[in-house]
Each structure stands twice: as structure tokens, then as C-alpha cells.
Design goal:
Elements: H1 4-7, H2 12-32, H3 36-54, H4 59-71, E1 88-90, E2 93-95, E3 99-101, H5 112-118, E4 122-128, E5 141-144, E6 149-152, H6 161-179, E7 200-205, H7 214-225, E8 231-235, H8 250-265, E9 277-281, H9 287-299, E10 304-307, E11 329-331, H10 336-349, E12 356-359, H11 365-373, E13 376-381, H12 383-388, H13 392-406, H14 412-415
Parallel strand pairs: 3-4, 3-13, 4-7, 7-8, 8-9, 9-10, 10-12, 12-13
Antiparallel strand pairs: 1-2, 5-6, 6-11
Helix pairs in contact: 2-3, 7-8, 9-10, 11-13
Keywords: Flavoprotein, FMN, Membrane, Mitochondrion, Mitochondrion inner membrane, Oxidoreductase, Transit peptide, Transmembrane, Transmembrane helix
EC number: 1.3.5.2
Enzyme class: oxidoreductase
Length: 421
């Protein structure tokens, strides 16, 4: 008799793939208990071997298995220090490297610590909605392997802010305990400075699909989750929540940001102040829209912009592929040029006064460098991991250092916005 989980829809092929993955991950766990520093390179090389097995599963099952693997600590851990050239300070936070994991992977903050240990300079969780919601009907994730791209229409599936707050609160408590030397009694009255910890945590906030007041949803997210975040993000650019992108209009955006900033600033903060507030925008905006957003960002002293979310457009390279006409947001290499162009425009419109996070199509160190030269202080990726696995990270860092040296830059900070100098 077939196992119960196979009866529910998984094929024997997928079951074998899952078993193989489990076996390989177990081997990696064993290896990581030995000489971790010297085995770090081997572990990332080994990840290359089993990464293709994830693609034998349907995309959402593979995504779920990847999150679980990360939460169980089954991904390779980077024990080698980041090259000093890659360190950068933004918003008073020190990033050991500029490469971050974009929101959308760890939606419910299940694997933050272990994802940071893989070697990301920052990890962004979410989008988190106030109330739990299932998102859009399945299937809702589609690979386009010929282009190493993905189309998704998840629709802000989220366990809600209570579940995420519990997980982040537990992490916060563990770090405070470590900072106090391990004595729980010393926790009383101590201030935990997350900026001194390895890795930076961003929390991406969304709204519930049927919420009549988007602003209230974002305010609720701020009140509940900002105490655990190194930075906050208002996501108003997902194409999969009806009406969300309308919030990018000048009047709506200015009103929303001021309301969220007021909610953040009315809370009590220590000497380090509140977490910076960023807005994530779409790549499908007209020039006039970008000018409006830049004007608002400067007027309200917004801390940063993430450029960009997925696109609803379909470049020629996507058309004709099996899943190319699926509705939803397109991510991956076909988005690189579009998102980088929007980012470059925004850098010029804000005169470099608003820190930018370059997101969209990054799948190599050269891609990241292109965004940095176009004005990004930090970069983010997600889809590239689907196709290249964790080894992408050390490969990107090596290539990024090579790009810096080739152009005579001693640090990431020197290269930011170099295309416009």
C-alpha cells in the first residue's frame, strides 16, 4: 500500500526525490558537526548536487520543503568571513555584505537565523498581513526554466502578525540571552542592540486582501513587529492583491507613509531610535509615477526604497513558453534590465539622497554590481536560489569582489552610484 502522503497527490517520482533530498541533507548535517570552518566550501559544493532534486517537485512544494530545510538547519553554513571589501553601513546598520534574501521566501519568519548563517548580509521576511489568510487558489507558482524565471500569484498567503511576532520574539529573547552572557537573570532591564548581531533582519508588511483600510493594516504591523526589525518595509507593489498598487499614487502614498511613520514614532525607542522605514515599489511605473514617488520620498524623509517587486509585463523572451502567459508577477533574469533601469531613474530623481535596495533579476555577482553602480547600496535576490541553490552566495561574493577590484574600488560604498559620477 502506498504511503498516505503519496495518496494525497505526490507522485512516486516526487517521493523518491524527497527521500533523496532528506538523505543528502542528513549527510550535510553530519559533515557540519566536524571541522566546520574547513568544510564550509565542501558543504556549498555539496549543495550543488542536491539542488536539482528540488526541481523534481512542483514549485510550491519545493518552496515549502526549502523553507523547512532552512528552519531545521539543513542548509550549508558559511563559516568563512565575508571579504572586508563587501562591508557597508546603511541606516547605521553594518552589513557584512550587501546581498540579501528578498521577501517572499520566508514569509512567516520560520528560518531567519539559519538563513543568515547561509551567508546573507540581510534577510527580509514577509509579506506579513495582520490577519492570517490563505492567499490565492493553487496552483499559483510556475517555473519557466528556459529563462530561469518564475511567475507567482501567491496573494500574500500569511500566518498573520501574531504567529510571526511569536517567532521573532523568541529569536529576540535568545539573542538577548546570548548578549547577557547566558544568565536569564541578567536579561532584566537590558537593552538588546540587534545592530551588533550577525545579519540584519527586515520585516515586510502587507495588507489583508479584504481590508477596507490599508493604512490601518500597515499601522498594526508596525505596532506589533517593529520592535523586532532592523528595518521595516511597506509593500504596496505586489500585483497579486487587488488595488494594492494604487497606493503608489502621489497623494495616497504620502498619506500612507505619514500615517505609518507617525505610528512608528509614537512608540518608545531606545537611544538607537526606531527602525528605518522603506517602501517597495513596482517596476511597471511610468516616468510621472516615479517622479511622484521620488518627490514624496524626499518630502517625508523616507529612509529607503526597494526597487523593485515583480512585473506584470511579459518580455518577448517569456512569451511562447509553457507557463509564460500565467497571470501573476514575473521574477528572474527577464526582470533585470527593467528593474535596474527604474532603479537608476529613482537614484537620479532622489539625487542619491534616499538609500536604494536593488531587487529584481539578480543571479550573479555581476548582476549585483550592475545594480550597485546604478545606485543601490544593497541588493536582494530570491528566484536565482530556485535554480542555482545556496552555492550562489559564495560565488556571488567572489565575483563581486573581482568586479570591485577591476574598477579600482576598495569597497562597495565607493561603487554605489558610480555610473552617475
Amino acid at each position: 500500500m502506498a504511503p498516505k502522503y503519496i495518496k494525497k497527490g505526490l507522485t512516486w517520482r516526487r517521493a523518491i526525490a524527497a527521500a533523496t533530498i532528506s538523505s543528502l541533507l542528513g549527510t550535510m548535517v553530519y559533515a557540519s558537526t566536524r571541522d566546520e570552518a574547513t568544510l564550509s566550501s565542501w558543504l556549498f559544493e555539496g549543495a550543488d548536487f542536491f539542488s536539482p532534486f528540488f526541481r523534481l517537485l512542483d514549485p510550491e512544494t519545493a518552496h515549502r520543503l526549502a523553507v523547512l530545510s532552512a528552519s531545521w538547519g539543513l542548509l550549508p553554513r558559511e563559516k568563512r568571513p565575508d571579504p572586508p571589501e563587501l562591508a557597508i553601513t546603511v541606516w547605521g546598520r553594518r552589513f557584512t555584505n550587501p546581498i540579501g534574501l528578498a521577501a517572499g521566501f520566508d514569509k512567516d519568519a520560520e528560518a531567519v537565523e539559519n538563513l543568515i548563517l547561509v551567508g546573507f548580509g540581510h534577510v527580509e521576511v514577509g509579506s506579513v498581513t495582520p490577519l492570517p489568510q490563505p492567499g490565492n487558489p493553487k496552483p499559483r507558482v510556475f517555473r519557466i526554466p528556459e529563462e530561469q524565471a518564475v511567475i507567482n500569484r501567491y496573494g500574500f498567503n500569511s500566518e498573520g502578525i501574531v504567529a510571526v511576532a511569536q517567532r521573532l520574539g523568541a529569536r529576540h529573547g535568545r539573542q538577548k540571552l546570548q548578549g547577557s552572557g547566558g544568565d536569564p537573570k541578567e536579561l532584566e532591564g537590558t537593552h538588546f542592540d540587534s545592530k551588533t548581531q550577525k545579519g540584519v533582519l527586515g520585516v515586510n508588511l502587507g495588507k489583508n486582501k479584504d481590508s477596507p483600510d490599508a493604512g490601518a493594516d500597515y499601522v498594526q504591523g508596525v505596532h506589533t513587529l517593529s520592535q523586532y526589525a532592523d528595518y521595516l518595509v511597506i509593500n504596496i507593489s505586489s500585483p497579486n492583491t487587488p488595488g494594492l498598487r494604487k497606493l503608489q499614487g502621489r497623494k495616497q502614498l504620502q498619506e500612507l507613509i505619514r500615517r505609518v511613520l507617525a505610528a512608528r514614532d509614537e512608540m518608545q525607542w531606545g537611544e538607537d531610535g526606531p527602525p528605518p522605514l522603506l517602501v517597495k515599489i513596482a517596476p511597471d511605473l511610468a516616468r510621472a509615477d516615479l517622479e511622484d514617488i521620488a518627490a514624496v520620498a524626499l518630502a517625508v524623509h523616507l529612509d529607503g526604497l526597494i526597487i523593485s517587486n515583480t512585473t506584470i509585463s511579459r518580455p518577448e523572451s517569456i512569451q511562447g513558453h509553457a507557463n509564460g502567459n500565467e497571470t501573476g508577477g514575473l521574477s528572474g533574469p527577464p526582470l533585470l534590465e527593467m528593474s535596474t533601469d527604474v532603479q537608476a531613474q529613482m537614484y537620479k530623481l532622489t539625487k542619491g539622497k534616499v538609500p536604494l535596495v536593488g531587487c529584481g533579476g539578480v543571479s550573479s555577482g555581476r548582476d549585483a554590481y550592475k545594480k550597485i553602480r546604478a545606485g543601490a547600496s544593497l541588493v536582494q535576490l530570491y528566484t536565482a536560489l530556485v535554480y542555482k541553490g545556496p552555492k550562489l552566495l559564495p560565488d556571488m561574493k567572489k565575483e563581486l569582489v573581482e568586479c570591485l577590484k577591476a574598477d579600482g574600488f576598495k569597497s562597495i560604498e565607493e561603487a554605489v552610484g558610480a555610473d552617475f559620477r
